[in-house]
Specification:
The chain is of the alpha+beta class and 129 residues long. The protein folds into two domains: 28 residues; 96 residues, TATA-Binding Protein (2-Layer Sandwich), CATH 3.30.310. It is built from three helices and five strands. Strands 1-5-4-3-2 form a five-stranded antiparallel sheet, with helices on one face. The longest helix has 22 residues. This is DUF1499 domain-containing protein. It comes from Geomonas oryzisoli. Keywords: Membrane, Transmembrane, Transmembrane helix.
Length: 129
């Protein structure tokens, strides 16, 4: 076979596996939209902020922004993604926490954002938030 034929066959295989990941991924719990969110209720915003900082640190996440109405942390890259951005938007009775892939073009997160939120909720529940 000549190099052009090998290239075309290889490209076809790569595209096929990509389509299979997108189409069959949801059967394995992988998210097509690389974003997940959860609402966390709390009574004290000050205590919740301290517990969130501690939970971010426990996960090895770096706090990028810490403002009165919003906190943002960044995770490290893994085999599932190039890292995620975890945003916390404070409301009156709690906070909405969103985890999304740091790379905007990443369509499949292999469940990483859901895992991030689950780990954060588990860490906060240990601190009785």
């Amino acid at each position: 076979m000549n190099p052009a034929t090998i290239f075309v066959i290889s490209l076809g295989i790569i595209i096929l596996f990509g389509l299979l990941a997108v189409l069959l991924g949801p059967m394995f719990g992988w998210q097509i939209a690389a974003r997940n969110a959860v609402f966390i209720p709390f009574t004290s915003r000050v205590e919740a902020r301290a517990n969130l900082r501690e939970a971010f640190s426990a996960q090895g996440w770096e706090v990028e922004r810490d403002e009165p109405d919003e906190m943002t942390a960044r995770t490290k890259p893994s085999w599932r993604s190039w890292g995620e951005v975890v945003k916390v938007k404070f409301e009156d009775s709690g906070a909405t926490v969103t985890s999304e892939c740091a790379l905007p073009t990443q369509a499949v997160d292999y469940g990483k954002n859901k895992i991030n939120l689950r780990k954060l909720v588990e860490s906060l529940s240990k601190n009785n938030v």
